[in-house]
Amino acid sequence: MNKIILVIQREYLSRVKKKSFIVMTILGPILMAALFIVPVFLSQVSDEVKQVVILDETGWFMNKFEDSERFKFNNVFTDLETAKTNLSENKGYALVYIPKPEVSVPSTAMIFSERQVSIDLKGYIRSTMSKEVENQKLGAEIMKEIRKVNPDFDPSNPESSNAGNVVSEEILKNIKTNIILTSIRMGEAGKEEKSFTEVSMGVGMFAGILIYFFIFLFGSQVMRGVIEEKVSRIVEVIVSSVKPFQLMMGKIIGVGLVGLTQFMLWVVLTLVIVTVFQQVMPDKLKKQQTVESFSPGTRIPAGAEAIQSMDNMEDQGSMDKMIEAIQSINYGVMIFSFLFYFLGGYLLYGAMFAAIGAAVDNETDTQQFMMPVTIPLILAIVVSQFVINNPEGPVAFWFSMIPFTSPIVMMVRIPFGVPSWEIALSMSLLVITFVAAVWMAGRIYRTGILMYGKKVSWGELYKWLFYKA
Amino acid sequence: MSYFTARNITKRYAAHLALDNVSIEVPEQSIFGLLGPNGAGKTSLIRIINQITGPDEGEVFIGNEKLAPHHVDKIGYLPEERGLYKKMKVGEQALYLAQLKGLSKSDAQKKLRYWFEKFEIQAWTNKKVEELSKGMQQKIQFIVTIIHEPTLLIFDEPFSGFDPINVNLLKEEILNLKKNGATIIFSTHNMASVEELCDNIALLNKSKKILEGKVKDIKTAYNTNTYAIDFYGYSGSALALLPAGFDLISETQEDDLRQVVVKLPGQASQNELLRAMMPHVYIHSFKEIIPTMNDIFIKTVNESGNFSENI
Q1: For A463, nearest residue in chain B (alpha carbons)
Q2: Cα(A338)–Cα(A346) distance, integer angstroms
Q3: Is the Cβ pair B97, A463 closer than 8 Å?
Q4: pLDDT in tens, B182-210
Q5: φ, ψ for residue A255 (rounded to 5)?
Q6: Residues near A451 by Cβ (< 8 Å), separated by ≥ 6?
Q7: B 123-142 residues with CB < 8 A to A
Q8: What is the least distance, in Å, from the CA of B80 to any CA of chain A?
Q9: Residue among A229, A241, A452 whose CB faces B72 most closely
Q10: Are residues A330 and A338 in contact, defined by beta-carbon separation less than 8 angstroms?
């Protein structure tokens, strides 16, 4: 047991100390951060003023949206259908529809657009709306409070009350308003998709592709490591000290830990870069904040400040808005299953890659064995395109059960919500399969690593499975 | 008292029989030559000793114990197919391999310092293996084989890749190890070094043991009672001089110097041959022709069956 730890240590350290690892670790987050930052940045620098049409059925937000360098707001007073038609005819950028609430204050809005609406616009609309609603609510509350104390209060003469004292914490909490903003893209044929789905798609596909790359990148590192040991002829020295199975598992685990380390570093560094960027250039990334004071005439200094600061706390920039938008995804399940399939898939394929490495004499000979191993992986990615459009269908179901494709396909499905029993079944199948794969790989490995100068066929590999140790 | 015993070992690979009922005994603190043509089964036997594979039948003992996993730390193995991690630093690598043999880190470091100093290669500690010459790599390989002070050492072609100076250094080290109590199994095709180093040998051919014993005894057994005499001053046939029953094997001449090789019959002594020759010739030299291990190897293997197909 001690020896397998030594092997893991060597495999881990020898890779982590490599220049290529350090370069990848630094480059990865820069690229990933760029993925977040550049689109926001680009949308900021575009000089075109975008026309945003406001269809406000409530009438609360008339002239509350202020034109900026990038957006020009126009109010219209038609019905929704006409507004939508006009939008596409006039090449408007987006249509903000604020429906009349059934009973209470406005709390929802929809943005219709042909292209993805920029995050800062969404942020601006949301904050402006919530601020206005909060103002109105606060005004109402204050009137209530004041009337309680001073029934003869004349609103036209605010000086007649001592309003600063009546705004309690409770009121501030009560008036806190969260606006639900749904963005809807109008397709070519007038088909409307909720962006909500797009986010699920994005998250699922991203996770799936990440697992795919992880398996390929680090699986083939396992294979190359095995071939290196064979070619340099060190393997016979090593297996006279440790069992071949220990050597193989040590290598698979060691390389897997390298992968995890790299992944964690990427996540942390990406977050650091994005955060630093946000701090350094807050104007670029934070949505335009409209720090409005309360309408003159209502003198509530303490309350107003409190609301402003609360608002600022909530108001952490456009990135958060995106994250907010994907909050409907169950993150506990998501993260757990990501790590599970990440490791399960890697172990399964890592074992197969190790067996391939043991069966060949050099990297060019790997072709014939690589094919059957890589095909399920590529198939999984191809199938994911269909799964994303129909995450409940039979194709999605079966490919997320087959252990060779499940790490990728299931990850694509999970953001859409998958019944627990399906996840449990898929995970159990994956575990059973990787145990079997590790066992078989161990048998092929132990014969293969000591076999030189022989072109190995599939039949041969099959025979190796049943050799006595 | 034998330190290592293999009893009736049989090992099969699919259709191929690699070892057929092979038994060997290696006395404690001796050097044992494991000989045989390519494909005879030497490597199979060595791998069984190292527990890289297990025998299908038969038993292996170290000391009085049946071979068990914990014995790997008592065995040092220098395989014929050997190498090191090319990208790894010499010091780190030696440390890793020593730790794999069960040494603690500090223990391994201490011993490595001693051996690196002895072989005068301290300067290489922080170099990558790929920067070293083949001979240097071999030295490191040798060090990591013996670093954990194994009681049973297996050297498979230890001298390949060394220059004559380093071969001598290595031979000295091997004899030293033996003196300090190690039991050594030595596999090679270099018969001269077998004669020089080995106390006992076993000869394998086609999965079977065909010869075993002390080197001295084997050589005596293969002695053909043949002598060579170099002489001057006789122009007639040497055959005329020989007593009855003495066989003239060969007769050669180089300038004035002639040589005859004579095989003596049964109990005849070499003095009789000299007595017969002396009155007629000036004897330049006289020596017994002792079969070399090389001769014995070729003769035994050929006799035991078609060797040619194994080459």
Answers
A1: B14
A2: 12
A3: no
A4: 999 999 888 888 888 999 999 988 888 88
A5: -65, -40
A6: A359
A7: 141
A8: 9
A9: A241
A10: no
The answer, yes or no, to whether residue A291 has pLDDT greater than 70, is no
Choose the closest CB to A240 out of B72, B87, B141: B72
pLDDT band at A460; cut points 50, 70, 90: confident
Please say whether the beta carbons of A11 and A225 come within 8 A.
yes
Domain end position, chosen among A190, A218, A250:
A190
Band of the pLDDT at A131, cuts 50, 70, 90?
A: confident
Tell me the pairing of strands A108-113 and A94-98.
Answer: antiparallel
> Min CA distance, A229 vs chain B (Å)?
7
Task: Spell out which residues of chain B touch residue A236, defining contact as CB-CB under 8 Å.
Answer: 52, 77, 79, 81-82
Averaged pLDDT for residues A447-465: 79
Long-range CB contacts for residues A271-279, cutoff 8 Å, separation at least 24:
A272/A29, A273/A29, A273/A30, A273/A33, A274/A33, A274/A36, A274/A37, A274/A319, A277/A33, A277/A37, A278/A317, A278/A319
Of A281, A172, A19, the closest CA to residue B87 belongs to A19
- At the topology level of CATH, where does B224-289 sit? Alpha-Beta Plaits (3.30.70)
What pLDDT sits at residue B41? 87
In this prediction, residue A312 carries a pLDDT of 40
Whether residue A83 sits in one domain with residue A220: no
From A142, A157, A190, the end of a domain falls on: A190
Inter-chain touch A6–B47, beta carbons under 8 Å: no
Task: Indicate the helix (H) or strand (E) that contains A428.
Answer: helix A420-448
pLDDT category, A297, cuts 50, 70, 90?
very low
A238/B100 CB distance under 8 A: yes
Q: Check residues A97 and B306 and name the one with the higher pLDDT.
A: A97
Q: Measure the CA–CA gap between A83 and B310, rounded to whole angstroms.
A: 91
Separation between Cα atoms, residue A320 and residue A273, nearest integer Å: 15
A77 with A150, same domain? yes
Give phi and psi for B263, each to the nearest 5. Answer: -100, 125
Task: Provide residues of A within 8 Å CB-CB of chain B.
Answer: 3, 6-7, 10, 14, 228-229, 232-234, 236-242, 244, 450, 452, 463, 467-469
> Are residues A143 and A15 part of one domain?
no
pLDDT for the residue A308: 41
Tell me if A232 and B85 make a contact (CB, 8 A cut-off): yes
Confidence of residue A317 (pLDDT cuts 50, 70, 90): very low
Supply the ipTM of this predicted assembly: 0.81
**Co-location of A28 and A54 in the same domain:** no
Instruction: Give the CA angle between residues A365, A366, A368 to the nearest 5°.
Output: 95
Determine contact: B258 vs chain A, CB below 8 A: no
Instruction: Say if the Cβ atoms of A237 and B97 lie within 8 Å.
Output: yes
Helix/strand/coil for B261: strand
Q: What is the pLDDT of residues B214-250, one digit of tens each?
A: 988 888 888 888 888 888 877 777 777 788 778 888 8
Nearest CA of chain A to the CA of B93: how many Å?
9
Q: A101 and A56, same structural domain?
A: yes
* Cβ <8 Å between B99 and A463: no
Is the CB of residue B56 less than 8 Å away from at least one CB of chain A? Answer: yes
Give me the CATH topology for the region B2-220: Rossmann fold (3.40.50)
Query: Which run of H or of E encompasses B140?
Result: helix B134-146
- What are the tens digits of pLDDT across the range A429-446? 999 999 999 999 988 888
8 Å CB contact between B98 and B112: yes
Mean pLDDT, residues B274-300: 86
Spatial distance between the Cα atoms of A256 and A335, rounded to a whole number of angstroms: 18
Question: Token pair of A27, please?
Answer: 């480059």
